[in-house]
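ingest -> fold -> write
write: protein_1
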Amino acid sequence: MRILFLNANLAGCGTYHRALWFARICARHGHHATLCTVARDRWWTRHEWHEPRLRVSEGPRWGYTWLPGHGSNWLDIFWRWHELRTGSYDVVYAFEYHPNVAWPVYAALGPRQILLSDWCDWYAGAANVMRGNRWLHAWDRRREEHIRHCAARISVISSALADRARAIGIPPSRITLLREGVDTTTMRPCDRASAKASLGIPADTVVIGTLNDGQALPHLLSAFAAFAPRVPHARLLFIGQPPTSFLAHAARLSLSHRLVITGRCSDAALPRLLSAADICALPLEDTCVNRARFPHKIGDYLACGAAVLLTRVGDYPAMLDAAGAAYVVNSLADIPDALEHLARDAELRAHLGATGRAWVARTLDWSVLAPQILNFVEGAPTPSSP
């Protein structure tokens, strides 16, 4: 089959990873796949790169943020419309509903082409607040839900989104739960002492690591502020380039001197940088957007052997807690005490790191998920989501 994957994100960001691996799995099993995403640093031109039976097209970024939710770059939308109209695709797999995903589908999908939809975030009224305007909320919700009704089959990332799909009238037979995967071959532990040394951090320093997550960062900083006086040698490692709001919040909490910031890093450097963290924490508030999502970074934290600390929000903390593969607490108020407990118990950290790595390799590695993904794309009968 010829399959077109449409992703709204900038290359390397968010759902891009999920769409790329779905495309890779299909290509590695004999299908011809094309993935359309958005270039990070090309404003007017496209860029392509290839793997066997897979073509990745990074469209121009110009206009990407013109509409709420992004994905509104007109040059890229036109190119995707042309690609869909002329590419003789059998299947079009739309990842979310943003303009550069939905509009080419609505304008160019042929009667013999099968539309699949992936639902992996709760946007309308959750991630997208639309400044509290109820008319904009209604418009956004209509956009988010309409493409699901158009699709022959829907993949969802969580039970919360499976419930929502059924609630808007999608038959359960058209809904399949496909978990988020992890590339555990690339994302693997490196020597922790060497990783710390490369960042100028003493080997005996307890390091709490994080990647950017807008839902978690304010809670993590507040928890670290409460925890920091108890373990004066601990440091908070931010991998990537932090938003200015994060730096300002850290300054207000008098934590700037306790931060280690790597700046933007390559995918190749990420395993080594994550390996410098003794603990990776993702404290999330219990909201519908957090119950519905699976932050891709959790899988990377686990794969790189850190002790992972989570709040009990959504499907994945419950799965990890049942397997003894993460330290899971019931509320945000529990995070400072949990950080202290982990900081003082190296044996527990080592156990959680090894158990978490083993769990994610046998449960969420892309090779483990590949048969379910292929069955869904090819239309083979699959169990509907719970």
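write: protein_2
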Amino acid sequence: MQRYFIRMAYHGGNYHGWQVQKNAHTVQAEMEEKLAVMLGGHVSVTGCGRTDTGVHAREFYAHFDMEKPLKDARELAFRLNVFLPDDIVVFDIFPVAPDMHARFSAVSRTYRYYISRQKDPFYRDLQYEYTGRLNIEAMKEASRFILGKQDFTSFSKLHTQTTTNICTVTEALWTEDDNRLIFTISADRFLRNMVRAVVGTLFEVGKGKIQPEDVKNIIDAKDRSHAGFSVPARGLFLEKVEYEFGN
């Protein structure tokens, strides 16, 4: 049995996230359908995570297994791109060790949330427009409370199937680029809706509705109702997934 990793990207606007769902158009379903055509039978594809409806991925990994090694994995990547929709691209397909897992072997994931500070008709489906006043320095101060190993239940979608809501966040920072405000967050794992809820809560800080130190109390409460609103999915990108592939 040979395992292969797929390195890919997608615009999430037309999809109900990555994971296959009944009566919903998903990226995983597209990938499995096209691989079945290419390889002559159903191929189960496992992703590095399940992005929410409308969320984009600038870098995403998935894996699948083959009984016999592929003759040319790079050629398969080229052929897949011919058949996949324009909003999904495969960069590479390559063999990995049998114990490598797209989801569980990932050591770090990085998301970015993009906010436009002015009306922009060209990138409306790729960022969140907010033209009101924000105290960005307060938002930066509040981001410090997100760092570290903590229980992030307050930022998780309710009734998920995860066994733990503990994540280790290694980066949480705001940067400005012309008229864009960008939030970057890196962690070993993320909960469903976590990034959008974190950004929405930090927005509450920026608007002056809560103080930066209140974010710590929100985390300690372990209650979703204590946190802020979830910002729209269209501004969220999975930017990078890191693995230790070895030699």
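write: annotation protein_2
The chain has two domains: 2-96, 108-242.
Residues 27-39 form the longest helix (13 residues).
pipeline exit 0
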